[in-house]
Amino acid sequence: MKILLIEDDLLLGESLKEFLESEKNDVDWIIDDREYEYKLLSNEYDIILLDLMLKFNKGEELLKKIKKLKNIPIIIITAKFDLSDKETCFLLGADDYITKPFEPKELLLRINAVTRRYFDNKNRIYISDEIVIDITQQSLFINNELIPLTKKEWELLYILAKNRGKIVSNECILNYVWQENPVGTESIRTYIKKLREILGKDLIETHKGRGYRLK
């Protein structure tokens, strides 16, 4: 699971990153909350952990901005414990709320519960009546027939399908599919060509110099 942690408490941020990565998660931790937009536009995350008392943005305002930018589940991690604070965050779209201090294990349980609910409701994406993506099985079906995909073909298809109708930047694709392995945009073009051979050439649009969009 890929997690974005927005937390300016150095000790807490470091301990949470270490714990969550020990549980086989990939964690991007930002201390400067002004970096949130760049991170969201250049990466694909499964969940965000958001502190409310940040240096440059009021946490509640940042929550609202993130929800407008991308539909990603968000857990609030904060020292604010008043019911009015919780109510505000839930009304703005927070998916869970945990008050400090807390046990990292409890946070992990909440992460798993939130992502399970989120993806259970979105486990299938219908590209057309004939083309269906099953996220749970990480599988593509065309006319009810399972179409074999390589790992990178699936990851590229998934990131395009999850952002269907939006342009997914080359940078975002490279960060999600190839991660720490540096490759050029020609690798993306190669895999886009393979997906077009499977899905049909008209379903994936090329936006030159920007990225790709699944119609």
Q: Explain this structure to me?
A:
The structure is a single chain. The mean pLDDT is 90. This protein has 215 residues and is α/β, with parallel strands linked by helices. The chain is elongated and about 55 Å long. The chain starts with a strand and ends with a strand. It has eight helices and twelve strands. It has helices spanning 10-22, 36-42, 59-69, 83-91, 104-120, 151-162, 170-178, 185-199; strands at residues 2-6, 26-30, 47-50, 74-78, 96-99, 124-126, 131-134, 139-142, 145-147, 168-169, 204-207, 211-214. α6 (151-162) crosses α7 and α6 packs across α8 (185-199).
Q: Mind telling me the C-alpha Rg?
A: 18 Å
Low-confidence stretches: none
Largest sheet: 5 strands, parallel
Please trace the helix and strand order, writing H or E for each element. Answer: EHEHEHEHEHEEEEHEHHEE
Oligomer: single chain
Proportion of residues in extended strands: 15-25%
What fraction, in percent, of the residue positions are helical? 40-55%
| Structural class designation | alpha/beta
> What overall form do the CA principal axes indicate?
elongated
Tally of strands: 12
Query: So how many helices?
Result: 8
Distance between the termini: 26 Å
Average residue-wise pLDDT = 90
Main β-sheet, spatial strand arrangement: 2-1-3-4-5
